[in-house]
Amino acid sequence: MARIKRFLGTFGTVGFGILIAIIVLEIMGRVLHLAPVALPDSYQNVREVVGRFPEPYSYFWFNREDGERIWVQFNYRSLRDIDHDYEKDDTTTRIMFLGDSYTAGWQVPLNDTYTGRLRDWLSDSDNVDFINAGLHGWGTDREYLYYRTEGYRYNSDVVVLQVYVGNDMIDNGIGVIEQRELPDGRHIATQSLTEERPYFTLGDDGELDFTAPRWLPSTRAERIGGIRSFLRQYVFTYALLEQLMQLRSENSDTDNEYAVRFDELFPADYYAFAPQSKTDDDWQSAWEITTQLIQQLRVEVEANGSTLMVLLVDARWQHDLNAFATLRQTWDIPQDWQPSRWGNRFRDFLDTEDIPYIAPIDALLAYRDATGNAIVLQKDGHWTAQGQCVVAVELHNWLIERDVIDDTVAQRDSLIEC
Questions:
Q1: Mean pLDDT score of the chain, rounded to an integer?
Q2: Does pTM top 0.70 for this prediction?
């Protein structure tokens, strides 16, 4: 009997300790915004238009090509950023960056993204606010859809649209990703157009026709019913354990996507290098869709009392000429195919439309040559922390020159060196 009492006493003590640990962990999870939250109406509104969209405060580990793991977490409004209120003080200059994976920056910690750097450098000022509204895989189409559905609510003074020359037109023009035969007998590799993907096409009148997502991925609460759904949505400790088990069971090899080479199927985005792409009907349609989206975004931004600017990111192959030389040899790319072809056309378009833009390619290459530091990841092609820093410096000084940031709050003379 005494042995049973000792056992029950020990069991009770251990159980009480575990309960206290769970309560402490639960409190910490909620304080650090790691706990699941009820989905806001804004989340439902956005996903019905843009398709797949991160759930509030969701998170994961991003496996970089060099083996380092980067913690990626989304805020209450599903952006990879700190939380922001919709409303702001009249004395605050708010700058929203709309973009794709170059802005989202999953390859580096949040503080090392160019928006994170800008926020850090101007942390002593309450008069400047930066919003990172970039998401991996977005093109101009979903960036525009996000702004008109949700982004405008932040009342930004300036909206900077980040355009990636390398694949934005493929994202915007579905005809480009369809299989076709090249003059040398090879075929463009077909890319899938998923049911959850919205897209625009050109109507007979030359105007944009919108097709909304035909299917939406299930939310966390919808994926499984009963007690597990409740625990997953409202109990941080359970969600954490489930996430840890998932991470332990998934061994992603970042090299896999680079291990396969198709001799006959040519990647669609490489065809942008070809002179023929500028006269190809599908590419011309993609260009028209892209330029109309930028023009419409400008109209909506200005209607909200804001100014549209552009951060032009040139093709990744311009950041690493050795990689392009290897690419040219691997795919037997003709000498008259150049990765700068569409970047130059974007520059001409922005000049014609009188849209202020910055293209940091020269600064990036100058920094690489001067320091020997890599500005892009070798296989991934996205900016390293140093590359993000160089872009942040260029943006910082450009925003000062454009009178967006007041010299009284700028850090021109005390920037952290990259």
A1: 84
A2: yes
63: in domain: yes
3-state secondary structure the chain: CHHHHHHHHHHHHHHHHHHHHHHHHHHHHHHCCCCCCCCCHHHHHHHHHHCCCCCCCCEEEEECCCCCEEEEECCCCCCCCCCCCCCCCCCCEEEEEEECHHHHCCCCCHHHCHHHHHHHHCCCCCCEEEEEEECCCCCHHHHHHHHHHCHHHHCCCEEEEEEECCCHHHHHEHHHHCCCECCCCCEECCCCCCCCCCEEEECCCCCEEEECCCCCCCCHHHHCCHHHHHHHHHCHHHHHHHHHHHHHHCCCCCCHHHHCCCCCEECHHHHHHCHHHHCCHHHHHHHHHHHHHHHHHHHHHHHCCCEEEEEEECCHHHHCHHHHHHHHHHHCCCCCCCCCHHHHHHHHHHHHHCCCEECCHHHHHHHHHHHCCCCECCCCCCECHHHHHHHHHHHHHHHHHCCCCCCCCCCCCCCCCC
- What CATH number is associated with residue 125? 3.40.50.1110
Domain count within the chain: 1
Residue 327: inside a domain: yes
pLDDT at residue number 254: 40
User: CA 157 to CA 154: how far, in whole Å?
Assistant: 9
362 assigned to some structural domain: yes
Domain extent, residue 58, equals 43-223+262-401
DSSP lists the bridge partners of residue 311 as 162, 358
Cα dihedral sign, 152-153-158-161: negative
Six token digits for residue 72: 């990626």
> 250 lies in a domain?
no
Token pair for 91:
């004395």
Q: Mean pLDDT, to the nearest integer, of 359-364? A: 97
For range 42-60, the mean pLDDT: 91
